[in-house]
Structures are given as structure tokens and as C-alpha cells.
Amino acid sequence: MITRLLKLGLLLVCCCVVPAFAVGVADNESATHSSEAAQYQIINTYIGTGYNIVQFNLGVLSHYSYLVVSEGKVLAVDPGRDVQTYLDYAVRENLEWVGTFLTHSHADFVAGHREMEFSTGTPIFVGHKSGALFPHRAVKEDETITVGSAVIRIMETPGHTPDSLCGIVCPANNLMQQEFILSGDTLFVGSFGRPDLMGGSFAASELAAMMFETWNYKLSKLSDNAVILPAHGAGSLCGANMRDEPSSTIGEEKASNPYIKFANDRSAFIANFLTGLEPAPRYFAENAKINQMGPERVDWADPFNERLTSLDGLIEQKEVYIIDLRDSVEYSRKHIPRSVNIALRGRLETWTGILVPFTSRLVLTGNAEEVREGAKRLKRVGYNADYILFEDYLASGGRSESAEMVAAADLHQLMRDGKAPVVVDVRKPAEWMGMRIGEVLNIPLDTLEADAARRLNRQEPVVAVCNSAFRSSLAVGLFKRAGFTNVVSMEGGAEAWVDAGLPVRRISDVSGAAASQNSDKTFRNPDLPDRLVPAQLRQMLKDLPGTFEVVDIRPAAQVLDYNPVGAVAVDLVDLLESPKWLAGDVPLVIVDRDGSLAMIVAGILSRKTRRPVKALLGGIEAYWQQIETGFIRERIIESGKTVGAPDHGSAKPDFPAAVPVIKEPMTPKSSPQSSPKPVRKGAGC
């Protein structure tokens, strides 16, 4: 409790101080800007009792896959679609294939289960609830897969999907010795697999409730020393807030996984599990279907649909997406009109899946090596592509455009002189709020094509910015597809801006007109948030449901006990620390027991964001006195009974026994504290 209060105190102080610290803008997307990130890499070999587990990483998809190896036998676990790396390993080590184990029907990539079957002639092990439509061996709770001296015991762990499995790896001579957990998308390092990817066939809250049961009655009962080997790492969109580590243990997760702190409160667990999830990329549902049906075999030597020699009649078609695979500098100098620059040295698979409708016609351009690699990689996420070599396009007489980049120093000078065009930061809202290059507009890349024309004048010049120019170069093409005629990208992105020593705005800075002119002062008075009286909040609940967000910072048990305003229980530290609460346009209403702490917190948050932040005056106690008891009193008077006038000034009302009682705040039991593990930022550029 003392540690928590100290942490909270530091947060309250730090939110009122402008700290002097170096700004870093690297994120997990930057780690994918290499050729190695686009290939399966062996990153670890875990030693068990009589067996090894080899861990592969595919950086561009943040995908971990595994080979369980023992006594000359080998089993693939959650392999990617291009399986040659696994096959080559088995040949090198003179291993005999046992089969392939799929923990569930993956949504973010097309799995290699059928490719492994075609290549090795061995079975595919999948859950009996998977609905698999390809030849397979269905497995269920407590059944086993044997690989030499290793035994993989099946545990059904619904939550991410209804059919999710974990494989508990034990030595054959001691099945009670739980050494490793092949956790798939059920349990990640610092997170759980998101529950909202079933496309409406299961409600997200239903799956979140399943995950609550899975953790409490299954996974938490395993050995604290059991090593967790997940199918994804930081940067994957299959979960939120993952730590940048390839493995963990059950004991470490109990101490540090932020969702597990709600493991004793089903309602709070579900509410927090569903909060802050980014929209799922449009290709996820399609990949899940492909994996369930059984992917077609790929001719990796010829991964294309068709080679084109001209684009006559295609460029202006809305359903045609031309993806330029070259780097941002080459693209800026000369490119095909309406083409979109998704460079090879980055998350080509993910960004294509986010931005390009699955039914669109996809045309790749670049040099021969680039289009071949691009076509192969897009097969990983189920896309089939035509291609035209960029030199062939130019030779056919095709028209080209340019979009020269602006240097960071030049843009800064234009901004200082008040002559800059509209500057659009295309990163995620949390990134934009954490650090930005000035008073710039935020339109995230994944909504840009739809939102740009609605928010901006197509005839006005625009500068797109991000971290490294990967996303901003991509944004240029999306702007042009939306009809904008004068768009450029900032060269080098925010990394170049920071390297040049130019000023930035941070989450701790006062934004907009509220900024103090005395910028050398360390302390600044917090903005006073808007205050809502209970009657106003009640009227908003009746007349404007869904147009604002209410969070309650009382202990979760008290919120569950009495929650008349439909608030989401939020941990106070999370509310102050997490940038997700600063995003959005709808008002954020903060409530507590008596309004005192809510006013302080709302004042702090008001300094960090332009989102309207309000506090409930008098808190839940005032709401009870003025709204709930007033409603009961009116009903009693209507029935002919008389009651005394309410004492609105009472700090502790005399609650009738028949209605929920607001309890005094409870002192939480202390829990083991662990050193904070790094959380890598969301996919950036």
C-alpha cells in the first residue's frame, strides 16, 4: 500500500512538472526496417528434460513459432505459411517429423499447417472445437502429443478464441513436471490474447469472461516456474501492452501482468480487458477463415498472379491498389499516380492488411527482386498480387508524379514564421500525445483515406509526418487517393527532427492556448476541469447515451456494489499513466466517492489533452443524495407517505437498508512488487 501511495504521489507531482529528459522516438516498427526482420530467425533454444524447444521469430509480424525436438523427432508449433526454414532445420539436424500443432485458428497470418502436411506427410493436431475443414487429428483436454522424450499435454484455454489451446510440455517420465507452456495467443508476456476477433459470432465480453475462467481455474494453477512461450511478441495486434520479451513464467506474470491484478474481480477484469483495444485490421477475419478452411498450397517459386506491362485503365479504379515497394526517397522522386508506398523494409504484411480491402485487386511495383519478395510476404497474410516492374511501367509511357520531401529544419522555420501548410501527424493517438513536433493535427494512418477529405481541404497543401518517414510516405499515397493534390512528407520523420535538436511537445507539456507564456517556470497551475452536478449527469445519461465516457476511480469492489451511472472501474494509477484515456473526442467524466480526488485527477488530465474532461461534483455520494433518494422520495410521496427533506450537505448520508450502501474505501492488501518490465510502443514507423 505504501509503495502504491508513493507511486501515486510521484505521479501527481510529475504531472505538474515539466521534466527535462531526452526524447526517444524509436518503436517496434523501427525494429522491422531490416531484411532480417522479414525472415524467420532462431532467437532462443530452451532446454527441457530430454528435449529442446527452438524458438523462431518473424519480426515483421511479431510472430513466434517453435520446433519441439527430442530423440530425433520434431513437432512444429504454430508455423508460418512459408515453411522452408523449418524444413531446412529438420534436414540439417537429421530429424523425423511427428506433425504440426496449431493452438487455434490464427487471424493475423495464414499458418503453415497445410504446407507442413503437404511437405512432410504428417498430421495436423488442432482443437476439437476448431471447426477445421481440412484433414486433421482433433485433440481435447488432457490428451497428449508425444515427441521422443517430450509429452505435450493439451489444455483447453478459451478466451482469445473459443477453440484456443495451450500445450503443457513435460518430460515423458514425469507428467507432473510442468516445464514449458506453448501458450499460443492465450497468454502473452504481459498480456492476454484479445477477445474481439470473432466477427460477431461470439461477443467480446463473453470471450473475456472465458479468459477470466481460463486464468483463474487453469493457467494460474500451473507451476510458477513453468516457462511461457507465446505465439506473438510486442508489436502484434493480437494483444495489447505486451512486453518486449520472448518468454516469461507463470510466476512473473502473476507479479507483473497488469490484467492479472483484476483476477479476483470478474467485472473489473472484463472491463479492463476490453478497454483500449485498437481496431482489428480488416484482413484478420479473412485469415481466420483461410486457416479454418485449410490454406491452398503456394508455388513459392512463382508467387504472382500475373505480370502486367501497362496499367491502362487500372490506375483510376477505386478497387485497385498499387503498392510501391521501394523506399520512401525513391518514391518521393517518381512514382505511379495513386500508388501507395509500403516499403519492403517494414511491416509490409500488416500495413497492407490494415489498409487494403481483402477483395481489392493488388498490384505490386518496384524492381524484380522487390516484387518477388513482396509477393511472397503478402502470401503470409493471404493476399494474391499482380505486378508490374517500375521500369516496365515507365517504358510503356506511363505517367509519373513526384512528392519531394521537406527537411525538418525547413519545416520548423515555416512553422516559426507562421507560414507552414497543414501538418498532419499520421501516427497513433497515443504516440501523438506522448511526443509531437508542435501544434499539428493527428489523423492516424489506418483511418486517413476515409477521414482526410472530411477534415481537410483537398486543395490546401499538406505535410505528413511520423517517426521515420515510413508511415508519412505511405500517407502521401493515401492522401492522393483521396483527391489531395499537394502533399509532401517530412524527410526522416520525428527522428530527424529530434536529431536536429528542434523543440518537441510532450505529454507533460501544457497544450494549445493553455500553455504558459512563462515557459521557464517549472511549476504551472493545472487547468480547472468542467464540473458536472448530479442532475446534469443524470440528464446526459437520459438524453445523450453513448456520447461520453464515465470512469469510476473508487475500488473496483465498490463500483461493482453500486454503480448508478454505468461507469467503468479504472485503476487510478492507470488513469494517470496510460495515454489511452487522453485519446478521443467524446467527453471523459471522472467520478469517485465524494468528488475531491476526481477533481484533482480531472485537473491533471485536462492539462494533457484537448479531450473534454469533467468531474462529478460531490461524487457518487452527491448523486445518491440528489438523484437516487430524490427519486425514491417522489415515489413515496406519490403513494401518500411523507418523508423529511434531504440534507444535501451531509457528507455521509443515512442510506436506507433496501438500497446499495456506499462503503468507505477499503485498504487493499499489499501484493508482491516487481521491477517494471519494458513495454514496447505500438506499431509505429
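The above is record 1. Record 2 follows with the same two-line structure.
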Amino acid sequence: MYSNLLFLGAIALAAINNVDGFAFKETYPDPGVIPTAKPEWLALLKDANIAKAPVLKVTPGIGPGPVPATDTYCDWTFTGCFGKEDLYQCPKGQWAPTYDDGPSEFSGKLYDELDKTNTKATFFMVGGQVVKFPELTLRAYKAGHELAMHTWSHNYMTSLTNEQIVAELKWNELAIKEVTGVSPRFFRPPYGDIDNRVRDVAKALGFSAVIWTHDTNDWSLTENPNFKASWIDGNVTKWASEAATATSGGVSLEHDLYNVTVDAAVRVLPTFLKSFKVTTVGDCNKQASYKEVAGPGAGSNTTTSSASAAPGSSSAASGKSSSASASASVTAQPQTEKNGAGVLTSGVFGVGMASVLALVLSS
């Protein structure tokens, strides 16, 4: 949910080579840059029935637009519309915490905390981060966490051509498979930005979209100097208090790219565990995590809650944008810009990088 400039600033701290010395066979695109698809990947679209939704323009600080006048093509950014095959919640009594944008140098601390309680979670990994941190990627997989995709360059997907969408997903998939031996089935569009065109392209490649019902707003910790970390705790505490009367379970949005967001994730995990059966998106929706089906991440999560209550609903479940979903919380006060603050495309990667890196290092 971070602005793309801030996200690119974080990954710019990486060297070209991965930090673990893992020997990749494939030569991967530069991190943070929209890649080019291989011809054999594009061939997968040959017989696909793809919606004719327009390729949208991204306005810095606002996001994709303009809003289509007649048909929004079930665009989540504009209408909060969920596609009929989108995954975004769990059954009553279950909760799937999900972590975006990693792995990062801070992810190990979150893995440690999850290991202590034998808790399995879903990680939406960015392709360039997988290439930088292959050992952390492999650790998460071997621990039984569900590995999913968050595209290669973290751009608004409705602003990409069909061919670029293919490249974003397939390079992401390839990096994870080269490290773990498995191909994720699930992807999360950056900023939740998806319409039927994106869904159709992804489906032709064998992927299913995952959104969320509850936003912790942890992304505001690095984007809004007035945002207080305690508001995240307030959000999660409120969701737990609503568990007894909720009609369905939840999927929460968190991040493991920054130290402050990992600290928040570690801090609120016990609240989730006390109130819900904590599980993965695939498990709570009874779907395989990987195209190969088998694998530690495809198994059942044995973590159980100390209560039989179910999570509460949030405004995000009814289709609000990420920043609007904070209205489900009594205390959270994130920025009001759509989908997690202003967004700049990767084309401005070099602009103001020194200040961006300074911000990242101070986080």
C-alpha cells in the first residue's frame, strides 16, 4: 500500500546480486522495473477471453483513472467490487493475516514470532525481493507459510497492458519457483488495484486474486508522520472485540518490508491468536496454495484460537478503498489519499532517490 516511490526507495537499497549468494539459473529483470514477457508466456493468452477494460493512466498522488463512465469492469479501486473468483475473507471464526512487499531484511523477525506459536501465514512476495532474499523466501516456504505473488515491480495493474500483466506475474512466479520448487496460485494486485481485464489475464495464467477485508493501515507508519503505531493495535483489538457477532472471518493486510511494520505485526499477532483460528488464505478457502498442490504451504494450519468467536466485518469488506477501510477502526487515522498515499510510477525511480533512501533508513 506504499507509494511506489517509497517502495522503490526501499528496494533500491539492494545490490544487483542477492544477499545470500544463491545461484539463480535465470537472469531476472531489474527490481522495480516493469519487465518484458517471454514469448511462451504470451502464448498462454491466445485462446483467453479477456475483458476489454481500458488501460488506465496513473496520476501521481492519486492513482489510476479516470473512472470509466459506463462500465467499471468490476474495478476494485473505483467501486470496491470483488470478482466472483476473488478471495478476500475466511469463514466465521477464522482469520488469515497476510503480509505484503517482502521478503526483506526484517522478515526474519516476523518468521521467528510465527515459529514460536506454530502459526502459518500468507506472504505476498515481490519478485525483486525474492531474488534479493532467496534464503528468507526458502525459509518461509519450509516453515509451512503460504507463498503468494505481489507482482514483479509493484505497479498499478490496471495501468498495465495485457502483455505487461503477464510479465509481472510470470517473472514473480518464476523467481519463487526457482527458489522453492513450487508455483504460487495466488497473487495480490498492488494497492488492491484490479478489474476484470486483470482478472482474466491472471486466470489464463492459472492465478487467482486475493484482496482483503481488514486493513491494519500499517503502511501509514512510513508515509504519514502523524500516524501512531498504537492505532494499529486499536484496529486489531476492535476486530477481536467484534468476533462474537461477526458473520464471517477476515483477511488482514500487513507488510514486512520495513522494521516498523514488522514490529507492529509481531505486536498484534497475539491478539489474533487469542480470538481466532489463525490460518492461511488457501486453507480457509479450501484451495491449494500452489499449482503443484503438494508442499508444506498447502497443508493444514494447526494453530487454534482460545475462543470460538468469529472476526468482525470492516468497511473494506463492503468494497471501500484501502484508506477508507480504516473507518472500521475507532482509532486509526490514516492518510486520506486513495489506496495508501500518492503513487509515482517506476519511471521516476531516479528522482529524489537520496531523500527516499534517507527516509527508508530512518524508518
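The chain has one domain: 4-362.
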